[in-house]
Amino acid sequence: MGMILLDMTMSLDGFIAGPNGEDRGLHHWWFSPAEGDRQVITDLIRNTGAVIMGRRTYDLGAEQDGFLDNPFDVEHFVLSHDRPEKPAKGETSFTFVSDGIYAAVRMAKSVAGDRDIVVAGGADVAGQCLAAGLIDEMRIALAPVLIGEGIRLFDPIAAGRSSLEKVSVIDSPMITHLRFRLQK
């Protein structure tokens, strides 16, 4: 069985998006990857068996047609109290889960097989997973930018909840990839 991974890009001052969900240059490394970045991306895509995200992440992706060329050809589980009126464009398969994070993880495990479940969108969903002790490993792509305002990845609820073991650090010109295993 694979791991449950929190995989996010974060600014040096702790933000994963601007106040309205805007990127603010955080993900330039993904679309113009250096050699080390390409390997991180390839490994992540190859090892992902399911994705969990929040409704805000889904809506932002759908508004920007971000699922048209989605390299993650796996089921995406979206935590949401309701279904969107119009589905996102593209071939990505979405299951909307209204029964909470445990139900989403249970469903993701049923389709992921030996591959990893990636928590890939939303500070709120990430915080729920961390608070529940569901995350096995965190992969933070640390961008050398200061955003100053917006959506922070780590809410105080996650503070002091886990000890971390550094697994690896990969430095590239645009990003620093940090991997930590959570000690349970």
CATH architecture descriptor text: 3-Layer(aba) Sandwich
End-to-end CA span: 17 Å
Helix and strand composition category: alpha/beta
- In the predicted model, the low-confidence regions spanning at least 5 consecutive residues are none
Number of helical regions: 5
- Helix content range of the residues, please? 25-40%
**How are the strands of the biggest sheet laid out side by side?**
5-4-3-6-1-7-10-9
Total strands = 10
The CATH class designation is Alpha Beta
CATH topology: Dihydrofolate Reductase, subunit A
Q: Largest sheet, if any?
A: 8 strands, mixed
What order do the helices and strands follow? EEHHEHEEHEHEEEE
What would the average pLDDT be, to the nearest integer? 92
Shape: globular
Radius of gyration, in Å, reads: 15 Å
Note the beta-strand portion: 25-35%
What is the total domain count? 1
GO biological process, one term: riboflavin biosynthetic process
GO molecular function, one term: 5-amino-6-(5-phosphoribosylamino)uracil reductase activity
Organism: Acrocarpospora pleiomorpha
InterPro entries: DHFR-like_dom_sf, RibDG_C, Riboflavin_Biosynth_HTPR
